[in-house]
Structures are given as structure tokens and as C-alpha cells.
Amino acid sequence: MITRGPDETGFYGGESWAMGHQRLSIMDPEHGHQPIVYQDKGKEAAVVANGEIYNFRELREQFDLPPSTTESDSEVLLQMYQKLGPDMCQHLNGMFGFVVVSEDGENMMAARDHCGIKPLYIGYGKDGATWFASELKSL
């Protein structure tokens, strides 16, 4: 389904899971491709995000996050997740919906902004699969 973001399509996944993203490039159009894959201390994780994290630069400084490889606000989500886990959400300011998944697909977290400005839909398949989307018709 291609209804969002005419700029690019991204895909990342493992043996039992996958992430896809249609992107409208606003933040770091040249390097902010999604899904963003990040490795820290041998642990890899990936994120797909919709929206904007307004305070991403402040979070980098406040939590002494490693230098980023992009200027995308979405990369901070991975760094914060690896540092704080789900508690990271209380520090985010913005309008967003995102999913973070560990490289083996065993750990995942989905969240949206505190007011629900950006939608995040969850669906469950008969085979036990879990699906996330920013548009209901994607499920």
C-alpha cells in the first residue's frame, strides 16, 4: 500500500519478523532512511516512526547519547530505547507513532504520542502474528 510519503520505501527484517516504511522525507532527507537500524554494545535494534520528536536534540544532550549517524529525530528513539527501555516515552515531546524491534524480533515496543495525534493501529493474525500500522486500511 502506497499512500504516504512519496520519497522512499524501506524494509528490514529477520527470520520471523519484518518492518516496512513509506517515507515522506522531512528530517534529514538524505540520511534518515527508515527503518533505521542501530547497533550499540553488540545489540542491534530497528525503528519505524511516523511524526516528529521535537526535543530530540535535547534528549541527545540530556542522556549523553552516542553520536548519531543521521540528523533524523527517529534515530534518538533507538538510542533512548537501548538506554531506558519503555521508560523512554515519558521523556519524548512530539507527535509520533513508532515501533522498535530487537534484531531477533523477540523484543518489541510500540508507542504513540501522549495525545494520540499520530495514529498507531495494532492487529493480530490468526497465526499469532502482530501487525502495526499508521493507517487502519494497512491491516
- Give the class from helix and strand content and strand pairing: mainly beta
Specify the overall morphology.
globular
Major β-sheet strand ordering: 3-4-5-6
Output mean pLDDT: 84
Can you walk me through this structure?
The longest helix has 12 residues. This protein is mainly beta. The chain is built from two helices and eight strands; from the N terminus they run ββββααββββ. β5 and β6 form a beta hairpin. Helices cover 14% and strands 36% of the residues. α1 runs parallel beside α2. The strands form three sheets. It has a four-stranded antiparallel β-sheet, with helices on one face.
Q: Topology of this protein?
A:
Elements: E1 8-13, E2 18-23, E3 36-40, E4 43-53, H1 56-62, H2 73-84, E5 94-102, E6 108-112, E7 121-124, E8 130-133
Antiparallel strand pairs: 1-2, 3-4, 4-5, 5-6, 7-8
What's the short story on this structure?
The chain contains two helices and eight strands; from the N terminus they run E-E-E-E-H-H-E-E-E-E. It is mostly beta strands and 139 residues long. The longest helix is centred in the middle third of the chain and has 12 residues, at 73-84.
Question: Which tags fit this structure?
Answer:
globular, 36% strand, 8 strands, two-stranded antiparallel ribbon, 2 helices, mainly beta
